[in-house]
Specification:
The protein is mainly α. The chain has two domains: 158 residues, no CATH class; 60 residues, no CATH class. 63% of the residues lie in helices and 0% in strands. The protein contains eleven helices and no strands. Helix 4 packs antiparallel against helix 5. The longest helix is centred in the middle third of the chain and has 27 residues.
């Protein structure tokens, strides 16, 4: 695949990824989960309230100042509200934009590591759709491929994920999010190597193309399962019971 074609396909997938994140961005129409801290504090930044930087400042019931994290994310949310008004879609826009940008950066990382537009595009597909594919598959692919280039994403993925195994705190998905791009690099290389055994250091398996298609299918199914949850799409009770509640763990 030429780099020109890669650039065109990458641009199309970036727009697709951004569209996925912008859909129903204003739902729910008020604070959701930690937005009672982050969005509330971003509003305070917007209005120049000095209390937003003071840990023990008084705040209204049901909300609080977000002072345990650096203020960059809150400032980006404030910028969104400055441009689009004090509404949910505006304070969430920066997150949607950053998520779409992460897709492109992940593909760029794969292209830099492997000098393969096809591998970069395969990684992009994983990231654009879900970024939540099975962790064990990524590690196994990295070990099997045996390429020095895989040491960086494998080490980064392990360093960002493994310490949580020792933490007594419940791990939410956003704790795992920093590890996702590196996992997508590993899975993308495994899928592309299985599909194209002629690549240097490719993952050679019996029925390689079938394995590649299976990995892509699993990524799509994972996306189809969780995208309604991420976008607050109402689901029938039976779908919730037979879908999410039937998952192990």
């Amino acid at each position: 695949m030429s780099r020109a074609r890669f650039a065109v396909l990458l641009s199309a997938l970036l727009l697709f990824s951004l569209g996925l994140r912008l859909y129903r961005l204003g739902v729910p129409p008020g604070y959701y989960f930690d937005e009672v801290y982050s969005a509330f504090t971003a509003r305070a930044y917007l209005h120049g309230e000095k209390d937003s930087y003071f840990p023990h400042a008084s705040h209204p019931e049901g909300a609080g100042y977000q002072w345990v994290h650096p203020p960059l994310a809150g400032l980006l949310m404030a910028a969104g509200m400055k441009a689009g008004g004090e509404r949910p879609a505006a304070w969430r826009f920066g997150s949607a934009l950053a998520g779409a940008a992460a897709v492109g950066l992940t593909a760029a990382l794969a292209l830099e590591l492997f000098a393969s537009p096809a591998a970069g595009l395969t990684v992009e597909r994983f990231t654009a759709k879900t970024g939540e594919a099975t962790a064990r598959s990524g590690a196994a692919a990295a070990r099997s491929a045996g390429r020095p280039e895989l040491r960086l994403p494998l080490a980064a993925w392990l360093l960002l994920w493994a310490p949580w195994l020792l933490s007594p705190r419940v791990m939410f998905f956003y704790h795992y999010t920093p590890a996702v791009p590196f996992l997508c690099v590993l899975l993308g290389w495994a899928a592309e190597g299985a599909r194209n055994p002629s690549l240097p250091g490719a993952l050679v398996l019996p029925g390689g193309r079938a394995v590649s298609r299976a990995l892509m299918l699993l990524a799509f199914l994972w996306f189809a399962l969780f995208y309604p949850l991420h976008t607050a799409v109402p689901l029938p009770q039976g779908a919730v019971k037979n879908g999410f509640l039937s998952l192990p763990g």
